[in-house]
Specification:
This protein has 260 residues and is of the alpha/beta class. Helix 5 crosses helix 7. Strands 1, 2, 3, 4, 10, 11, 12 and 13 form an 8-stranded mixed beta sheet that branches. A 3-stranded antiparallel beta sheet has the order 5-9-8.
Length: 260
């Protein structure tokens, strides 16, 4: 039952070229940076990544992306990642864009053993009708586009069929975890992390604080250890290495009030 692995490199040692990965995080929140860096160090390439976005500020998945290690991304947000956009538009990267809620549910469904489900999100658009560019030819032409999806009507409302997602591996980051793999996520890092963890056939969690079994109140567990196969305890330095994506400050006025 002890799932603790000594190092991040050891934890990802069997991730092969071409593997599919579900990766937690949103922007800079809850990103398994240490495990991603370990994959980069190993030189793994041709990866198929399922994640909300593909890294930000040269961190997270952006490390693998910039090195040309990712071949396909399934996500919902490109954001300010200019390298992501460049690789997509030049045909270097295949990208499947999905509505954010649909992506979350596809991960959850895959982890719950649900092969497919119907949702109203995307009905009447290219999400359902097909034709979304998955890969460009580098000259503005589309060489691979999304296929049309099944649409059915339930009680007068149309719904599109979406398939659950399962991946070879999942990489997640938790605030706390015990040796059995039970995880607790801190605030907004409890975004795509539990869902990504559920979708992976082999899930690897880096935890900021490693606890012994029984030290986490069962009612406080966000993700049961049954979904986690390996746990890596971060050092204090690794756990505290957190960046701010967009820093805003407030300036106190002469009368003591605060304005932005």
């Amino acid at each position: 039952m002890d799932k603790v692995v000594a190092t991040a490199l050891e934890a990802v040692a069997d991730v092969p070229d071409g593997a599919t990965l579900a990766v937690g995080g949103f922007g800079l929140s809850g990103v398994p940076n240490v495990l991603i860096e370990a994959l980069y160090e190993r030189g793994v390439s041709g990866l198929g990544v399922v994640s909300n976005n593909c890294g930000a500020m040269d961190s997270g998945l952006a490390v693998l992306l910039a090195a040309g290690r990712i071949g396909r991304v399934t996500g919902s947000y490109i954001g300010a990642n200019k390298e992501f956009a460049r690789q997509y538009l030049t045909g270097e990267l295949e990208v499947e864009m999905i509505p954010q809620g649909t992506l979350a549910e596809r991960l959850r469904a895959g982890g719950a053993g649900i092969p497919a489900f119907y949702t109203p999100a995307g009905v009447g658009t290219q999400v359902a009708e097909g034709g979304l560019p998955w890969r460009y030819d580098g000259s503005g032409g589309v060489v691979l586009a999304s296929p049309p999806k099944e649409v059915r009507e339930f009680e007068g409302t149309e719904y599109v069929l979406e398939h659950g997602i399962r991946t070879d591996f999942a990489l997640v980051r938790a605030a706390r975890g015990d040796r059995h793999g039970n995880l607790v996520f801190n605030k907004s890092s409890r975004n795509f992390n539990p869902l990504a963890a559920m979708a992976g056939r082999v899930t690897i969690a880096e935890v900021e604080e490693l606890l012994e079994p029984g030290e986490i109140d069962p009612d406080a567990v966000h993700l049961p250890g049954i979904f986690v196969q390996r746990v890596v305890a971060l050092t204090t330095e690794q756990a505290n290495a957190k960046m701010i994506e967009k820093r805003t400050v407030s300036v106190p006025a002469a009368d003591g009030t605060v304005s932005e």
